[in-house]
Write a structure and sequence with these properties.
About 35% of the residues lie in helices and about 30% in strands. It has about 400 residues and is of the alpha+beta class. The longest helix has 23 residues, at about 240-260. The chain is globular, with a radius of gyration of 22 Å.
């Protein structure tokens, strides 16, 4: 990866338990244009509150993130700990605290063990440039089973640039104009307003289009930094270069979002839900998310039960405008129901075979208009219950 002007570091601070690296740093050699989205949960972790205050300036130069402890529901001490963490990093790097973003992920309601963080920060700063994007991805994992990264290359004339990202998340996934923890970095020179607009659109198409369990976290953060180290002519609105950058950004975010769904806690299936024929795109998204979040639908996916009626029921209670006599449903290319009624036993058998696949597509047509949406979800297995029943132990 040829991402210029960024360095990574990761160390073991034993924040929850020893044996893995759990404190990480992203550092830009120069202040970067930055934008971010955060959880819409009314219960926000201290690092979310602090980072949201700072991102208003439109710049960032460093991010420090820990796993194993969310620093959420920790009162005033939690905010003091988040501020101290950024102060230690800022002083060590010789930059303003305002330019340091901070994130945490892990158990809610447990004070951050600051004595361990303080002890680990010097090694974290000294290790700049010794870690890779994969190392960073591994350090932010909690119940994830694999690190998640995506990298794309672009160019403006002869000047090449990179768009790279990493994310963590496997449970407590149901964003709303936010995401789990995700960091997207580019060395491209790009107009700040354009970057912000493209980022919000890309988030909506990716992280806002996935769900594993319908739970929006207290710590969701997605941060984008562009440091301009590639030295290209600035990317501005309304140009082919802007369209190309937008496509690469979309690919990185959607790739990360799909990896999160595939790594859903206990997941055995990756399911694409397509909603067509709605009165509006908003109605389509509303119906698609109802299907994707339905525990009954998700357990049917896990059990490989072609129970199409559960899907129609979810569409019906979603709040979208629905005419039951116009509904149609497919599992991949198998029509399971049309005009609101069952397509027959042959469809049942063929649909069951589709559900045996690890990846499948469910298409619902409301038959009312041109609105459409696509969201991504997983099944709901016994393992999901086991993982979350034992999460704090």
């Amino acid at each position: 990866m040829s991402l210029k002007g960024f360095q990574f570091s990761s160390v073991e601070a034993a924040i929850k338990k020893p044996g893995r690296k759990d404190l990480a740093l992203i550092w830009s050699e120069v202040p970067a244009v930055a934008t971010a989205v955060f959880t819409t949960n009314a219960v926000k972790a201290a690092p979310v509150v602090l980072s949201a205050e700072r991102i208003v300036c439109g710049q960032a130069q460093a991010l420090v993130v820990n796993s194993g402890n969310a620093n959420a529901c920790t009162g005033n001490q939690g905010m003091l700990d988040a501020r101290e963490t950024t102060r230690l990093v800022a002083e060590g790097l010789g930059i303003a605290e305002q330019l340091v973003q901070v994130c945490s992920t892990g158990v809610i309601g447990v004070p951050l063990p600051m004595e361990r963080v303080r002890a680990a920060v010097p090694a974290l700063l000294a290790g700049r440039g010794t870690a890779s994007l994969d190392d960073l991805a591994a350090a932010i994992m909690t119940t994830d089973t694999f690190p998640k990264t995506e990298v794309r290359q672009g160019a403006v004339g002869a000047a090449g640039y990179t768009v790279a990202g990493t994310a963590k998340g496997a449970g407590m996934i149901m964003p709303n104009m936010a995401t789990m923890l995700a960091y997207v970095l580019t060395d491209a020179v790009i107009e700040p307003g354009l970057l912000n607009n493209l980022f919000k659109v890309a988030v909506d198409r990716s992280f806002n289009a996935i769900t594993i369990d319908g739970d929006t976290s207290t710590n969701d953060t997605c941060l984008l930094m562009a440091n301009g180290a590639a030295g290209n002519q600035p990317i501005v609105s309304g140009t082919p270069e802007a369209a190309h950058f937008a496509a690469l950004l979309d690919e990185v975010l959607l790739g990360l979002a799909k990896q999160i769904v595939k790594d859903g806690e206990g997941a055995t299936k990756f399911v694409e839900i397509r909603l067509t024929g709605a009165l509006s795109d908003a109605d389509a998204k509303r119906a698609a998310m109802a299907v994707a979040n339905s525990s009954l639908v998700k357990t049917a996916f896990f059990g490989q039960d072609a129970n199409w009626g559960r899907i129609f029921a979810a569409v019906g209670y979603s709040g979208a405008t629905v005419d039951p006599e116009r509904l149609a449903l497919w599992f991949d290319d198998v029509c399971m129901a049309k005009d609101g009624v069952f397509a027959g036993e042959d469809a049942e058998q063929r649909g069951t075979e589709v559900l045996k696949q690890k990846e499948l597509r469910v298409t619902v047509d409301l038959g009312l208009g041109t609105g459409q949406a696509t969201v991504y979800t997983s099944d709901l297995s016994h393992e999901y219950v086991s993982i979350n029943a034992d999460y704090r132990t």
